[in-house]
Amino acid sequence: MKSLLGMTAVAVVLSAVAFMLGSYQTDIYRKLLLWTTLALSYNFLFGIAGQVAFSHFTFYGIGAYAILILLFQVGLPLPLAILAGIALCVVLALVVAIPATRLEGFYLALATLAFAQLFIVVLNEGGTVTGAGGGLANYRLPDVFGVRVTGPWYTVVIVVLLLSTFATLWRLDRSWFGRACRAVRDNPEAAQAMGVNVARTKIIAYTITSAMAGVAGMVYAFVDNTVNPPIFGLQNSFLLLFMVIVGGSGRHAGAIIGAALLYLMPFLLSPLIGHHHALVFGVVMVAVVLFQPKGLIGVWDALVARRKLVP
Amino acid sequence: MSRKPLLVVRGLTKRFGGLLAVGDLDLDVFAGEILGVIGPNGAGKSTTFNMIAGALPPTAGSLEFDGKSLRGLPTHAMAPRGIMRTFQHNKPFASMSVRENIMVGMHTGFTGSLWRVLGATHGAARAERDAVSRADALVEFVGLGDRGHADVETLSFGQGRLLEIARGLAAQPRLMLFDEPAAGLTPAECERLSHIIRDIARQGIAVLLIEHDMRFLMALADRVVVLNFGHKIAQGTPQEMQADPAVVSAYLGDLAAVAHA
Q1: What is the pTM of this model?
Q2: With B98 labelled, which of A25, A30, A158, A256 sits at a CA distance of 20 to 30 A?
């Protein structure tokens, strides 16, 4: 009950912000919310379930393309297109996960990298279905129950996406499933002895988080109202990984901090130092990995612990 | 004994290529008893243990638990059948608290589907609360007292061993397998461990432990099986074993070999 009230309060505040922003800030705000959503679900996959997968941003792209193709080429109504899009993400996630989760660390990373590259190839070679190199454009969100959802109201949709993603992951993490995921990451042999089916746990974690990325992608498709292959390239997959690592992998708060920091950093630094912001990005990454592998949330933890020690 | 044994092992054999690690081993373990398996280094204790724990497929032989075969089952199928184990080299879930580690041990007890978790049903919430209070009770039982919220990284080796036991008991097993539980413990910790293992057996749980430390085992076990070069060379009460010439020579041989090395 308390958490429900808290969530509602956050929803109201995040939504209220949407109504105060100009169009330039709205674009930044929406993408900040989307990056945070993605970082949260990727944190579950990478940080909590311990799977070094590079396919998360690819599922974001699959969701985006799928909803557009299903709506405007297959001609499904919006609710059906959403369900079919989720189903597609689940099937593709299973196709990748069932063989790939047998692989450990490095090899899982390679397999998912290959999948991510394959997706780009399919987009470029997809002819009129994917719009090839130019992607898809000139569309808009169909009316929902006769209402056109635009402007700040569409930002509210993204807020709902973010908070429902967060609530779902929070519950999973605090359940027997979340413990099983951490157990598999920490010590698969001991996890098995506790009765945890390691392969199944990995496949479920991969599929759920990938489907979440897919849903976020569906929402994204109507943010820029254009999708094209370069958006879903590897650069953004790695940015997502950096967000989780810088913030503190395995922690929801870490994912949120990491996403906010790395997404906003160029906007804050460019006016001051121009293109050198990339250099700052690199230095921050190296510093975090070297000095605080637990990320910024680890720094915060250390500060809190020190305060407790001082009487 | 007219009671039926809980675990029946017959003709258990493991070959690694041409090497016979365990040959034609028969074992019975009854509910509420402590069976010790002992033997010098390389006698096949660990191989036997891993086969019973489902971590290593036997080359031949049968493993029956409560009348049902265990052969061919994956490792994770042991816990739901009531067979839990500890590891000789503690294998905690390092990122979790002591309490959470124990709650992973309850994994098979959580029957609710993921939908119930996502729906945040009352049933799921209650199961979670029950698990927490049972975990805290187990923390008390093994004597980790106020360490329930501690990071496992802060535990001493001996405390880590106690956590292994609590985590195993969390599944409410019918058979507990201990892999050299006394290894690396101080004499005081060994003493505590003996009490805990006796307590466990008194609850009606069958206990099988393999052990290198003869003194620890002889004071604890109801019955002892002695292995040497993969074969059972004797079995009986600890008193009988200490007087058995085959056992004495196997151990003396071992000591002599160590002395020569």
Answers
A1: 0.92
A2: A256
Instruction: Give B10's strand partners.
Output: B62
Q: What is the ipTM of this complex?
A: 0.90
**Using beta carbons and an 8 Å cutoff, which residues of B are at the interface with A?**
53, 55, 74-80, 84-85, 87, 91-96, 100, 103-108, 110, 112, 114, 117-118, 120, 124, 128, 131, 167, 171
Picking from A245, A249, A254, the residue whose alpha carbon sits closest to that of residue A290 is A245
- The answer to whether residues B75 and A163 touch, using CB atoms and an 8 Å cutoff, is no
User: Any alpha helices (H) in B113-183, and if so which ranges?
Assistant: 114-118, 122-141, 157-169
Q: What is the pLDDT along chain A (311 residues), one digit of tens a residue?
A: 677 889 999 999 999 999 999 999 999 999 999 999 999 999 999 999 999 999 999 999 999 999 999 999 999 999 999 999 999 999 999 999 998 877 777 888 999 999 999 999 999 998 999 998 999 999 999 988 888 898 999 999 999 999 999 999 999 999 999 999 999 999 999 999 999 999 999 999 999 999 999 999 999 999 999 999 999 999 999 999 999 999 999 999 999 999 999 999 989 888 888 888 888 888 888 888 888 888 999 888 888 888 877 65
Of A177, A182, A195, the CB nearest to B95: A182
